[in-house]
Design brief:
272 residues, 2 helices
């Protein structure tokens, strides 16, 4: 978290780097610019490289070299999801009567504290759906109408994004909207989809997708601490005072061509 506020004659920036077991605070003095600042609070002004989380038991593993029996695919009619060359490949297109959309849920329900990680590659090789957009995901997802069975209305959702609004979950839309925005949302389960109030959305090119190169995504759900990392850089660091402590995980995309590999879920070790 990065905080900046008016001061005289200098401003002070507080940078917090937090690993699973320790927190370090660094204060840096900044010369005030000749502008008037009343009050400003910025969350994650730049990406922060953080120490690797301390993991314990391996709870789930998928290398996509057998079948899709551990997964539930919800996709609009003009897309395909399959195993290819040891990867999960999602090739999602928009048909004449839909906007496209695909969610691939892992069947197992998880409770925190956990670390979810995987590698994803956005394919851009001239294909019909090679759009370079929407490396998205849901986690700690629950259907309030069916809290013990996320898949009770799987066929009804069918991959259409608006049909996920009633769920209770965390969501990151990474390089969404044609690779122009990156956002964190907390769906409370009432149909609303509020953005992270501390960050709103990221627009800088460094937070967007790159073609044809694997990136490592890591998600931490540790009680009030909710984090999203890309290639070891902390992109979102959200404190949830009423956290979602259990639920399902799903890859999410729309009108895009991508592949996923090396899916893992670990129990996080907590401080003694």
């Amino acid at each position: 978290m990065v905080t900046a506020r008016a001061a005289t004659p200098a401003a002070t920036r507080s940078v917090r780097k937090r690993s699973n077991q320790t927190e370090t605070f660094v204060l840096i003095s900044l010369t005030m610019l000749p502008v008037r600042v009343s009050c400003l609070c910025l969350w994650m002004l730049t990406s922060t490289v953080v120490a690797a989380p301390t993991t314990g038991e391996l709870l789930a593993r998928e290398d996509f070299n057998k079948d899709l029996s551990q997964w539930v695919v919800e996709q609009t009619p003009n897309g395909t999801t399959r195993l290819k060359d040891g990867h999960l490949e999602i090739d999602d297109g928009a048909g004449p009567n839909d906007k496209g959309g695909c969610t691939v849920w892992f069947r197992q329900k998880f409770s925190g504290p956990i670390l979810i990680e995987y590698e994803a590659t956005m394919i851009q090789q001239g294909g019909a759906n090679d759009r370079l957009s929407d490396l998205n995901c849901f986690w700690m997802a629950i259907d309030p109408k069916h809290p013990d069975d996320l898949f009770a209305e799987s066929a009804k959702r069918a991959g259409s994004f608006a049909n996920y609004d009633p769920l209770r979950l965390y969501y990151v839309g990474y390089g969404a909207n044609g690779n122009t925005t990156t956002r964190f949302r907390r769906y409370p389960g009432d149909g609303s989809r509020p953005l992270d109030p501390g960050k709103d959305e990221l627009l800088d090119a460094k937070y967007m997708n790159v073609p044809n190169r694997p990136v490592k995504i890591q998600i931490i759900a540790d009680g009030e601490r909710v984090q999203f990392l890309r290639d070891g850089e902390l992109i979102f660091d959200f404190t949830d005072m009423t956290p979602f402590r259990e639920g399902w995980f799903g890859f999410r995309t729309v009108r895009n061509h991508m592949k996923v590999d090396k899916f893992r879920v670990y129990r996080l070790r907590t401080s003694p």
